[in-house]
Write a structure and sequence with these properties.
Layout: E1 13-16, H1 23-27, E2 33-38, H2 40-54, E3 60-66, H3 73-80, H4 83-87, E4 90-95, H5 97-110, E5 114-118, E6 130-134, E7 140-145, E8 152-156, H6 157-162, H7 165-185, H8 193-202, H9 207-221, H10 227-247, H11 259-267, H12 271-276, H13 279-293, H14 297-310, H15 323-332, H16 348-368
Parallel strand pairs: 1-8, 2-3, 2-4, 4-5, 5-8
Antiparallel strand pairs: 6-7
Helix pairs in contact: 3-5, 7-8, 7-9, 7-10, 7-13, 8-10, 9-10, 9-14, 11-13, 13-14, 13-16
């Protein structure tokens, strides 16, 4: 099928430890009244710094709101009903993935200018044109796609470096998954130009993490904003976001996901995943199974060793999922949308074989200790 007309909107971003200096030049043309919406911890970490820089501009902050607790349509509607939201010329979204996705779903739908201020490096929400929506009970609902990302993303590396390192830790797992899922999902296909770009770009979601990931995580734990930290932040927040935009269109197959994400979303049925584990942490475990199921032994070993170096999970026990729960997941995973466009049908036997091989690999390590 030939696509006669399509459009691609790429993210604009700034990165650095004094990047909020750009707030005025970037935002003033959109109006004057700013509503800041974000997570509680994120606002505690970033609001004062944002305010100091806004005072140097023609902008005025008219309010500060906590977004809620989860990215749901009900949360979006509560924010939409706020008088301050109706009054605001623009919104500054502050926080992690769920806060930014909530603000994106609110503002982009209304065509209200929205700017992202990520405070952790766990995901690419600050640069994507999709929000991951959840049910009220915390289980995954669906992706909600938009024509564009936020107007601009202000990536303050000083704030991110001071955030809990567990978020970057999880972000590493979610980011390298993009490369493997994109390349598997697009295998042996004639790709549109933008999809081919996305697949090629996705390589940069993995390679920098293999090079800089372990050192970046150690520096992050010390609160240091080093070159290694910046390279990993760029991979997690920017590169993955750009790849996502190229790989996901509502008129093409979804090349943006795959088996690792299907494993994660199947596991959100268990409260322990939402309460005690992070998205990228579980996806990073899932990619081990995805690579084994795909027969990529060499790549599996690379990621297995990286997971061990940085402490990402390599066993079901690491994410507190029981064998009985895994058996339930195996029944759900083959029918999930994340593997609907895959070069082969995912089966329960395939998942069983991959898990058995992973367990054998872990046992090998335990024997050599």
């Amino acid at each position: 099928m030939k696509l006669e007309n399509y459009e691609v909107h790429l993210p604009n971003y700034s990165i650095g430890d004094r990047i909020y200096e750009k707030i005025g030049p970037v935002c003033e043309s959109y109006g004057k009244k700013v509503l800041v919406i974000g997570g509680k911890k994120a606002l505690d970490a970033a609001f004062d710094k944002i305010s100091r820089y806004v005072e140097q501009t023609k902008l005025t902050i008219i309010g500060k709101e906590i977004y809620g607790e989860n990215c749901t349509y009900a949360t979006v509607e509560k924010l939409r009903a706020l008088p301050l939201y109706q009054e605001a010329d623009m919104v500054f979204g502050v926080g992690g993935g769920k806060a930014l996705d909530t603000v994106k779903c609110l503002c982009i739908t209304d065509d209200k200018p929205v700017f992202a201020f990520p405070t952790i490096a766990s995901n690419c929400s600050a640069c994507t044109s999709v929000s991951i929506m959840y049910n009220e009970d915390g289980t995954f609902l669906k992706p909600h796609f938009f024509i564009r990302p936020v107007m601009h993303s202000f990536i303050d590396t000083e704030i991110i470096a001071k955030a809990p390192a567990q978020y970057m830790w999880a972000g590493i797992g979610d980011t390298y998954a993009k490369y493997y899922e994109a390349t598997i999902s697009s295998r042996d296909e004639r790709l549109e130009h933008f999809t081919a770009l996305g697949v090629d770009i996705s390589r940069m979601c993995c390679e920098p993490l293999l090079v800089y990931g372990p050192k970046a995580l150690e520096d992050h734990k010390k609160g240091l904003c080093t070159y290694d930290v910046e390279q990993v932040v760029l991979a997690i927040v920017v590169t993955t976001g750009i790849a996502s935009i190229f790989l996901t269109k509502d008129y093409t197959p979804d090349y943006n996901s795959g088996l690792a994400h299907a494993i994660f979303y199947a596991m959100t049925a268990y409260p322990v995943i939402e309460e005690r584990h992070l998205h990228g942490e579980v996806v990073g475990f899932g990619i081990l199974l995805a690579l084994l199921a795909d027969g990529q032994e060499e790549e599996f070993e690379k990621i297995y060793q990286l997971n061990k170096k940085v402490g990402l999970p390599v066993r079901l026990e690491d994410i507190e999922v029981t064998k009985a729960q895994w058996e339930e997941c195996k029944k759900r995973i083959p029918g999930m949308s994340d593997v609907a466009h895959y070069p082969y049908k995912v089966t329960g036997k395939m998942l069983t074989d991959a898990m058995n091989r992973l367990r054998e690999r872990v046992k090998e390590d335990e024997k050599t200790k």
